[in-house]
Design goal:
The protein is of the alpha/beta class and 190 residues long. Helix content is 35%, strand content 22%. The structure holds guanosine-5'-triphosphate and magnesium ion.
Length: 190
């Protein structure tokens, strides 16, 4: 299988109505702030500067579209959106559920969560929304280089008891990046 995603930043949207119009499949990257979403995008593309393109300070947009060979990845700001105003937060809390509810292109979601303290309350709220909407999701346990091999296995196993699709990721581990590329390719081409 082709695992080179050829990821490229396309555009951002500040509201659901402004989301890019296209006919391809799309997967969403969600998770807490600092979980490692942007780092994952950069690792997937082998380009350390890619995700920053959409993260101009003070101009953070809600939906960030990255084109890859088989479709699109949409990167979201972390839950909590700590760096934006109250007004912005309120607007985003209206726009985000619209995206998950109405976006026909959306076929799956990757939830990024730090392997050292995974699946916090906000992640579980996301899961509950995705289950209600019958959207498949993969739990990505990030920063796996921060724990021992046995702690990694324990975290994978305990999360697999609850969630059907679980994988570990470290931006320092090429094998895990290749695995993530494969998961994305499979989701987008099924
Ligand atoms: N050791 C290690 N650090 C990582 C890894 N992935 C991300 N980080 C670090 O974690 C921090 C946050 O990463 P980001 O990719 O900016 O996190 P984010 O989820 O995009 O955060 P928001 O944009 O705020 O939602 C950065 O300092 C990264 O260098 C990893 O696999 N291993
Ligand atoms: Mg980010």
């Amino acid at each position: 299988m082709e695992t080179n995603l050829d990821l490229q930043f396309v555009t951002s949207a500040a509201s659901y109505d402004q989301c890019l119009n296209h006919e391809e499949r799309e997967i969403a990257f969600v998770g807490a702030s600092n979980a490692g979403k942007s780092s994952a995008i950069n690792a997937l593309s082998n380009n350390k500067k890619l995700a920053k393109v959409s993260k101009t300070p003070g101009k953070t947009k809600l939906f960030n579209f990255f084109k890859c060979k088989q479709g699109y990845i949409v990167d979201f700001p972390g839950y909590g959106f700590s760096k934006v105003s109250k007004v912005q937060k309120k607007e985003w809390s209206r726009e985000i559920p619209k995206y998950f509810q109405y976006r026909d292109n959306l076929i799956g979601v990757l939830i990024f969560t730090d392997i050292r303290h995974p699946m916090k309350e906000s992640d579980l709220e996301m899961v509950s929304m995705l289950v209600d909407l019958k959207l498949p999701f993969i739990v990505v346990l990030t920063k796996s280089d921060k724990v021992s091999e046995s702690e990694k296995k324990d975290a994978e196993e305990s999360n697999k008891k609850i969630f059907s699709d679980v994988m570990s990721l470290s931006i320092k581990d090429q094998e895990s990046i290749t695995d993530l590329r494969k998961e994305i390719s499979v989701l987008l081409s099924n």
